Amino acid sequence: MVSQLQQRNDYSFADYSNSCWFIDFALLDINIADTNGSLIGRPYLTTAIDIYSQCCMGLFLSLKSPNHQAITQALRHAILPKSYDSEYNLRHEWITYGIPAGLQLNNSSLTNSYLLQDKLSQLGISIYSPKSGSRLNDSFTEKLFSEINRYLSSDALSNQISTDNNSFLTLGVLEKILVLYFVDNFNQQIHNDSSHQTRQERWESGLGSASKMIEENFIHTLLT
């Protein structure tokens, strides 16, 4: 059975971690290259944000405009436990994972996708569609994507990429940079409504119960 779309004009129901995630998309202000150094375009970033804690749960990079696959790939990354090797140079761990109770997308046409609704229904995820004029998370993600673009245009980017002629900003390199940004920077920032907890700490303390059991093979198969 496909999940029934529910309209909400507030987020009072998002009162614990993984109660509802918000998925949004942005065209980044940076060009990437292939392994030969030829520019191939600007990538789209899809992020999954936990509304309660403001933690970034997962992401997906692609040269294609936002589509069904971008959502499912970002969801798969967000839902499953994450681990990274030493190449990522992380000081923290990306500890967030789990299956959200609800999901909201900043794209009405994708929200109405029967195939997407069917996949979410199999995971027990409800889709929340905001009423007109009540997209409370727009300003948050607009600020987030603005911060990311500033980060990518700063010295922080050049410091992480070798300047020799055999090194280019590929999609893979950019993914490493963004993982580092979200794990060691964004998720470690103080939550807007908390004077003492980081976003990651708020996510940890806000888990109402043990996370749902995740069958990784099922998630990989379903969210392709």
From TrEMBL:
Residues annotated as signal peptide: none
PROSITE patterns found in the cross-reference section: INTEGRASE
Organism: Trichormus variabilis N2B
Domain of life according to the entry: Bacteria
Domain Integrase catalytic residues, every copy: 13-207
Protein name, entry field: Integrase catalytic domain-containing protein
